[in-house]
Amino acid sequence: MNQSAFSLEARKIIVTGASTGIGQGIAVAIAQAGGQVIGIARSSLAETAELVAAAGGALIPVHCDLGDTTAARALLGELLAEHGPVHGLVNNAGIIRRADALQHSEDDWDDVLQLNLKLVFVLSQLFAAAAIERHHPARIVNIASLLSFQGGIRVAAYAASKHGVAGLTKALANEWAAAGINVNAIAPGYVTSNNTEALRNDPDRSAAILARIPAARWGTPADIGNVAVFLLAEASNYMSGAIVPVDGGWLGR
Asked: Which residues are catalytic?
């Protein structure tokens, strides 16, 4: 096995939503693989910075409310100009709003689609344009979901947004692969994170979920981070437009 193919040495990677959960796990895994992390979040990145440092890396913390796509676009332009070339973008930031479909408000729908889907397109578009202009190979890793394939319960906007992320990943891959920009996505299963706290605190739902997972456990942010490293590294050179489930076997059940 060529270990260097899995290294991110000397590579700079932007990770959105890097303050907790899956984004934090991805940031730490990138550092462990030798990469430099530019972490974006609206909340404190202090804990992520400590974990990245413990992994032997360094985090460049950037604070921004990514729900404002105009501000997000301006910020990414500044980061690319200041730190370029940037080798990878991980579109992880996202939210979930739980409600019966009959009570799901239009405001909640708009908030979820704005952050989970529109932001992914806006950031990917700007990132790819810079890479193509510089003739610089690059990687985009989107965070999809099991709900890119399923409907879920009481999460209509979230399911719609994650189906959209899967489709967008394939569409962008089709356009940009020949330019040296590989676009792939990870579809996490049930992972211990802020988004799944309500499920984990519901004894009945938690038990039902665990009963279906062949691995018989909830996933961890590190489980997702390690796959993100693979998709950001040379080892995945011939992968483009893939949606990779990391779910403990849920979809195969």
From this structure: 158
